[in-house]
Amino acid sequence: MSTLSSHLMPTYARQPVAFVRGQASTLWDVEGRAYLDGLSGIAVNTLGHNHPALVAALREQVGQLIHTSNLYEVPLQAELADRLAALSGMDNVFFCNSGLEANEAALKMARKHGHEKGIAAPKTIVFEGAFHGRSIATLSATASAKVQKGFEPLVEGFVRLPINDLAAVEAAVRADPSIAAVFIESIQGEGGIRPATLDFLRGLRSVCTEHDILLMIDEVQCGIGRTGKWFAHQWAEIVPDVMPLAKGLGSGVPIGAVVAKGKAASLFGPGNHGTTFGGNPLAMRAGLATLAAIENEALLDNATQRGDQLVDGLRKGLASHMGSGVREIRGKGLMIGVELHRPCAGLVAESLRMGLLINVTQDSVIRLLPPLIIQSQEIEQLLEILVPLVRGFLEQSDTAQAA
Ligand SMILES: *Cc1c(COP(=O)(O)O)cnc(C)c1O
Predict the structure, then answer these.
(1) CATH code, domain with 370
(2) Has residue 329 got a pLDDT over 80?
(3) Pocket test for ligand 1, best of 46, 98, 100 (most atoms within 8 A of CB)
(4) Are strands 214-218 and 92-96 parallel, antiparallel or unpaired?
(5) N or C: which end of the chain has fewer CB within 10 A?
(6) CA distances in angstroms from 88 to 100, 230, 233, listed in the order given
(7) pLDDT per position as a tens digit, 9-56
(8) Is the C-beta atom of 97 inside 6 A of ligand 1?
(9) pLDDT category of residue 1 using cuts at 50, 70 and 90
């Protein structure tokens, strides 16, 4: 199959396959070949493909109203905001269209909070390994030199610290009274499925409360049920001040949201922020239908059970390679990383040829993000493809190294 590239900016090294149809956890390409979806369009297709309740809701909404703008009341926004507030224990929501937009809003809130405290140049603590998006501000908050290169000067006002080192955060906050916010992913996604420990998250919560600093938790990838809780930080039984959401919230319809609590919930007033598309009725219906299906179909439990099944299967299948070849298998629910000792980006294409969609991040971490509706026998099928593939790859590289 040829690659369709003529007038597209070559921002992605795409796999040479185009999908034309999907059903639940399966996709079909133009030639009718089936693929098991182990990636959900990067944690987006929460309900898989062609989910009947989502499709019905969207069909109905398209026939009623797609967009009116934020110059008018949008009752579906209020409805989805109510749901998100109830699920998170937070107060107010601003709707936008993507993860970086939600994060931009959060970063603006951090600065506004700082200014209201009388800080002239407020700073935000960010972490090594972080990914927050590709706008100028969010790429500056991101830890990747690859993402930043060519787009300098970066936005100032970020202090970068190692993850899971509470003493470093405490020291930074004590040393610098201009710190207004801490910005962290509960589980780093692009950074290689690296979790913040629950103790670290709890520690951040108390440091932030003590110093009147906003705790902003980027749940764009790990939120919306992916880890078996509505939001991954809920495993630590804390509530952030600010929580950006996006990817999985619309099951494929573009949507972003920033949820805020307490003082943070009233930082934005008229004129402080805005969006043309954000919060349109179609996206709101997608969000409502996604949350309803997660609840009605007990998908939080399914994420936990299928995730455990997947990790068990990987541990058993790769047992003889643990510590030599496989560095670590980690994650929570259906957000799983298998870190190898060697770069393994080539596994993406090999897996595709075997009919399984996966991703590799940070060169050597196989990333699995299947839809939350995935069934037990599909997890078995995934393991039947992936385990021999990884074993073969490691044995091959062993031979190559020995030679
Ligand atoms: C994907 C992602 C973003 C950026 O989202 P976009 O919708 O691509 O702008 C931000 N933060 C995290 C944690 C992400 O995984």
Answers:
(1) 3.90.1150.10
(2) yes
(3) 100
(4) unpaired
(5) C
(6) 20, 8, 10
(7) 999 999 999 999 999 999 999 999 999 999 999 999 999 999 999 999
(8) no
(9) very low
- 97 Cα–ligand 1 center, Å: 11
CA-closest candidate to residue 282, choices 310, 253, 262 = 253
Structure tokens at 91: 């107060």
The Cα 3–Cα 340 span in angstroms is 30
* 52-108 tens-digit pLDDT: 999 999 999 999 999 999 999 999 999 999 999 999 999 999 999 999 999 999 999
- This prediction has a pTM of 0.97
Query: What residue's CA is closest to ligand 1, atom 11?
Result: 132
Residue 19 annotated to the active site: no
For the beta carbon of residue 79, count every other beta carbon within 10 angstroms. 13
Q: How far apart are the first and last CA of the chain?
A: 35
Q: In terms of domains, do 92 and 193 share one?
A: yes
User: Looking at the structure, do residues 139 and 288 belong to the same domain, yes or no?
Assistant: yes
112 is catalytic: no
Place of tokens 């970066």: 154
Cβ(255) to ligand 1 under 6 A?
no
- Reference 322, options 338, 306, 334; nearest CA is 338
CATH code where residue 183 lies:
3.40.640.10
Q: What is the pLDDT of residue 399?
A: 75
* pLDDT confidence of residue 401: 65
Cα–Cα distance, 317 to 229 (Å, whole number): 27
The tokens for 299 are: 């998908």
C-alpha distances (whole Å) from 75 to each of 70, 130, 293 are: 11, 35, 20
Helix (H) or strand (E) holding 242: strand 242-245
pLDDT for the residue numbered 3: 54
